Amino acid sequence: MGETYELYYWPGIQGRGEFIRLAFEDAGVPYVDVCRARGGVARMEKLRRGAAPGLAPLAPPFLKVGDFVLAQTAAVLHFLAPRLGLVPEDPRQQLHAHQLQLTIADFIAEAHDTHHPIAVSLYYGDQKREAKRRAVHFRDERLPMFLGYFERALERAGGEHFIGGAHTYVDLSMFQVMSGLAYAFPRRMKSLARRTRRLRALQGRVAARPRIAAYLASERRLPPNEHDLFRHYPELDAA
Amino acid sequence: MGETYELYYWPGIQGRGEFIRLAFEDAGVPYVDVCRARGGVARMEKLRRGAAPGLAPLAPPFLKVGDFVLAQTAAVLHFLAPRLGLVPEDPRQQLHAHQLQLTIADFIAEAHDTHHPIAVSLYYGDQKREAKRRAVHFRDERLPMFLGYFERALERAGGEHFIGGAHTYVDLSMFQVMSGLAYAFPRRMKSLARRTRRLRALQGRVAARPRIAAYLASERRLPPNEHDLFRHYPELDAA
Predict the structure, then answer these.
(1) Do B156 and A100 touch (CB under 8 A)?
(2) pTM above 0.95, yes or no
């Protein structure tokens, strides 16, 4: 039981925690989604305040294995993936997977800021005007820029997988990004369909993986909602 | 010569490249700052378009060693630090250093967005109203939150160094963050002086390290300016 994987993340959203959940689910490796049980959020807050020895996390998601606590989604995946068989053994391929995951992190932070361009402490309704303005630039400039980069990276890697011709956590993460964008920006994503052919095919292949399909159909997969990273506000979307 | 370290970054700013420059300078390990020589930016653009085998970087800074190209500042430092003697050998301490560097990356992205809350493609002057609104929340909420976290992390680690009681690249990076904030938000940083005592002492110790002091006095250290990540716009600062 010393090697129990405990994931700490907000219980009501997919958010950044979902990238880690998908890795565990795909690998079929047991993990405890701590905050979804009674008292879990209080345990999370204790760890944030420094209840475990060493460096405390600033924010969820974070992982706890024994007394080792590690935060930052991409760092957690970089640590976990070799243990879960979700990245090749070659250290340079692991670094390239990590580079892509960090670029995904940049991308989703920008996607988040379309609905929160002024402050995370304000409601969306209190920054709606700025959100509308930012969303235009996101849809017209940033979204095609990032997706074009990932589409080309996938093409260069052979079209099926991002890293080393093998299924990795980066494929899982890209599935999550594409799902989130399709939920938040359905009109814009439709107009980009031809330019994201490989990414959409990858999304479909990941969704069809038996363990992922079972997970998506389960109650463990939280539905998207307007407290999440990806939010559907029709006024922020356009073809 | 196969192991020459080539750094690719914009030649006129400190920016994110500076975190990598500081690591090389402190270690006293030679590196080529490619874009500061004639034709360097063109070489950088070729690599971004995929001139080297494997994964291409989306954006600078990136490192090239032989034919291995690695992007994302924090990933580059995670790769380089053991080679430069700037992190302990323990893998968990390396992951904690990386976690802190990624939290620094989140922080500086927010600092950047105070002057660019709407779009990187627009001039500051075209998003000044939104910038003023965002800067209030950054100064009053995010800046104390992040600095409070780093101050406590430093205190918990013994007060001198962030990781394992040893000098690491995280100390160098925090020096850069504190320098950038002092330039961009001098009034606010002054009002936070008491709450950032350990961070400011660390900043002073790093600046006094012989190789860093020599670097800061050299022409290799670019002066801060209003094309950089940290910009001084007096209207965005307040006590």
Answers:
(1) no
(2) yes
